[in-house]
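Thread amino acids onto this structure.
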């Protein structure tokens, strides 16, 4: 899949990798020269919960929860909140297309 990610700190970052199934969402994207990774799982194919952070480290406890929305033309939006372990939080929007 291809797509973009908006986290409202630096909008419209291109996804470098993305995989979405009913059970999981994984991606990598680059923002301000840093590479970030997202891994989330789902029980229902609608709500995805997981972690985000640097490619080799989820130890900091940063989490996210996303809700999946799908259009008739096969574009998918994952919208939700990210949370850092220090209490800072923000909004994630992933726009995916085939």
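Threaded sequence (98 positions):
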């Amino acid at each position: 899949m291809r797509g973009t990610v908006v986290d409202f700190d630096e909008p419209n970052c291109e996804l470098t990798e993305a995989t979405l199934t009913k059970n999981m969402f994984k991606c990598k994207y680059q923002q301000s020269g840093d590479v970030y990774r997202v891994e989330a799982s789902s029980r229902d194919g609608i709500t995805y919960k997981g972690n985000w952070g640097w490619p080799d480290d989820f130890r900091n406890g940063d989490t996210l929860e996303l809700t999946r929305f799908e259009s008739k033309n096969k574009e998918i939006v994952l919208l939700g909140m990210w949370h850092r372990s220090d209490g800072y939080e923000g909004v994630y929007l992933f726009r995916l297309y085939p």
